[in-house]
């Protein structure tokens, strides 16, 4: 640090203020010090910095080993955003999102001195654990959490996204629309169901009872075989994620029901494969990169005692050829 101070023509304390992102510095001074840091290849001693600032500079990230596209993508983007923001990341992947697993994970991270946690596990049990640790003074930002159950949450507006998908089908002329929902212990699944129901009620229609899946293609296939293929009154299905839509597509194909000629199908998430399914799948796109960056922005603001930014991110409906006007009834 002394070499940086000498090259920049400033004091040792000024270099320390730049390294620690102190706000009360003249822009030209900050720029001169940063040029000296880059020229000398200086890297702060993080252990010494932690002793001085009494901050570890480390955050925890908790996710699951489910392999689902949304949570796994958010996990990667949160870690990348955290590193870009100057944090070290301690990551925990849980085999199951039970209360015991989440409690143990947060306790493990607290023992490492993390300054906060991003929890990518918006189940009811995980939210209860997050709320208890928030009350105990540890900032916990829950991805896709229920804003009524957790103090700090971030995610795509699930209700709006589901309403957009349903309104798209309604706008095409469909009235018999079934929703294949996710497990109702997940806040995202309940929000998507609520969005579907709100759109149906707003159109003056009674929403059909939801068919409950478990996010997997297998459950979408099973529900399609057991409930959808025999119902010739149903002209459209909104699935709570693309994996269940994929399973439904196979069930409809094997039954001889054509998509989209007989049944329109809309998914949620817009996984990379959605555009290459047969037919290409209409889906609600979630900007997981924005979710990861926003999670870190909120956590950093909370840690530093500032006002967190807006927590909800707008979804986007990507229309493809799996959804068209309903067939003409003879």
Automatic annotation (TrEMBL):
Residues in HTH lacI-type domain copies: 1-53
Gene3D superfamilies: 3.40.50.2300, lambda repressor-like DNA-binding domains
Keyword Magnesium: no
Keywords: DNA-binding, Transcription, Transcription regulation
Record-linked CDD domains: HTH_LacI (cd01392), PBP1_LacI (cd01574)
Pfam families documented for this protein: LacI, Peripla_BP_3
Domain of life according to the entry: Bacteria
GO molecular function: DNA-binding transcription factor activity; transcription cis-regulatory region binding
PANTHER family: HTH-TYPE TRANSCRIPTIONAL REGULATOR GALS (PTHR30146:SF109), LACI-RELATED TRANSCRIPTIONAL REPRESSOR (PTHR30146)
Protein name: Substrate-binding domain-containing protein
């Amino acid at each position: 640090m002394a070499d940086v101070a000498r090259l920049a023509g400033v004091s040792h304390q000024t270099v320390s203020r730049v390294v620690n992102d102190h706000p009360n510095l003249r822009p030209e001074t900050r720029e001169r010090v940063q040029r000296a840091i880059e020229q000398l290849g200086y890297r702060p001693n993080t252990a010494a910095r932690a002793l001085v600032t009494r901050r570890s500079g480390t955050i925890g990230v908790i996710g699951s080993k489910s392999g689902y596209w949304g949570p796994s993508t958010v996990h990667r983007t949160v870690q990348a955003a955290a590193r870009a923001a100057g944090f070290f990341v301690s990551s925990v992947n849980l085999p199951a999102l039970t209360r015991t697993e989440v409690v143990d994970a947060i306790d493990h991270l607290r023992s490492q001195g993390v300054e906060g946690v991003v929890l990518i596990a918006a189940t009811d049990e995980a939210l209860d654990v997050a709320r208890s640790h928030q009350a105990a003074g540890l900032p916990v930002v829950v991805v896709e959490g229920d804003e009524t159950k957790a103090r700090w949450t971030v995610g795509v507006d699930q209700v709006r996204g589901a309403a957009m998908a349903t309104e798209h089908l309604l706008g095409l002329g469909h009235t018999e629309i079934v929703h294949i929902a996710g497990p109702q212990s997940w806040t995202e699944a309940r929000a998507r169901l609520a969005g579907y129901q709100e759109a149906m009620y707003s159109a003056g229609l009674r929403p059909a009872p939801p068919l409950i899946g478990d996010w997997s293609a297998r459950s979408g296939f099973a529900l399609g075989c057991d409930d959808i293929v025999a119902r010739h009154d149903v002209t459209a299905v909104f699935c709570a994620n693309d994996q269940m839509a994929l399973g439904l597509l196979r069930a409809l194909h094997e039954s001889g029901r054509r998509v989209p000629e007989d049944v329109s199908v809309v998914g949620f998430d817009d996984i990379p494969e959605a555009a290459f399914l047969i037919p290409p799948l209409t889906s609600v796109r979630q900007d997981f990169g924005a979710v990861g960056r926003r999670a870190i922005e909120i956590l950093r603001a909370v840690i530093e005692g500032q006002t967190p930014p807006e927590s909800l991110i707008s979804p986007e409906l990507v229309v493809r050829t799996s959804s068209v006007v309903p067939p003409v009834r003879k």
